Amino acid sequence: MHRFFSLFFIFEVVSLICCVFFYFKKGHKLIVYFLPFLLLTVGVEFIGNWWIDHDIFGKSASFGKNAMYNIFSAVEFIFYGFLFTRFFKKKVFKRLAALFIPFFTVVVLLNMIYVQGFNKTYNTNPLLIGSFFVVLFCCCYFYESILPDQVDLQLTKQPFFWISCGLLIFYLGSVIINALFEYLTSQDLKAEGLKIYSIINNSLNVFLYTSFCIAFYVCPKRKKTF
Predict the structure, then answer these.
(1) What is the Cα 171 distance to its own chain's centre?
(2) Is 167 exposed, middle or buried (0-12, 13-18, 19+ CB in 10 A)?
(3) For position 1, what pLDDT does the model report?
């Protein structure tokens, strides 16, 4: 199947369309934050898919894709860290998320310079570290949500609840499936293993971007000021 019609890419585009639609309809700050991020996400996937399908640069295309995805992965986690600094209520959690951003930036740079390189391969070390912190931040958010002063709020009507649900399931699942990648693609399981990996990976992406769409939908309308 043509990669432009892969399930996760379709859902990325759908989430971008929803983001644009609700940006003009509601203008909520969460949507404002996500609009450039989703534009970048779809743009990166579009370029990556185009390189893969056409292979016009041969071996150099692989190096270019690796560099592009390594940079984007770093931006992605920094963006999520920024989101949590904006939506956490407890100062200790805000501070933790704020400290994560420079810490993770240093980790990415050191990994690129001394460990996995800039464009030789997809950098998995920052992925594991970033995934751990995103899962931790999601747990902190859910902890905040059950505190006495928040217990009266209906979680399903809170946009960031859906964002946190999507991120938690996606990154927990991604860590598990990537940890099992070598086993699934071993000689004994190669054909079925790749199929299982693809199905789970697509399902995780569908869940993530569907949760984004729901978050945009439940965002309250921007209050008019005169």
Answers:
(1) 8
(2) buried
(3) 45
Buried b (16+ CB within 10 A) or exposed e, 203-219: bbbbbbbbbbbbbbebb
**Confidence class of residue 163 from pLDDT cuts 50, 70 and 90?**
very high
Q: Where are the domains of the chain?
A: 3-218
Architecture of domain 3-218: Up-down Bundle (1.20)
pTM across the whole model: 0.88
Is the Cβ–Cβ distance between 74 and 104 less than 8 Å?
yes
Q: What are the pLDDT digits (tens) for 98-115?
A: 999 999 999 999 999 988
Rounded Cα–Cα distance for residues 184 and 178 (Å) = 9
**Amino acid identity at 186:** S
SS3 sequence of the chain = CCHHHCHHHHHHHHHHHHHHHHHHHCCCHHHHHHHHHHHHHHHHHHHHHHHHHHCCCCHHHHHHHHHHHHHHHHHHHHHHHHHHHHHCCCHHHHHHHHHHHHHHHHHHHHHHHHHCCCCCCCCHHHHHHHHHHHHHHHHHHHHHHCCCCCCCCCHHHCHHHHHHHHHHHHHHHHHHHHHCHHHHCCCCCHHHHHHHHHHHHHHHHHHHHHHHHHHHHHCCCCCCCC
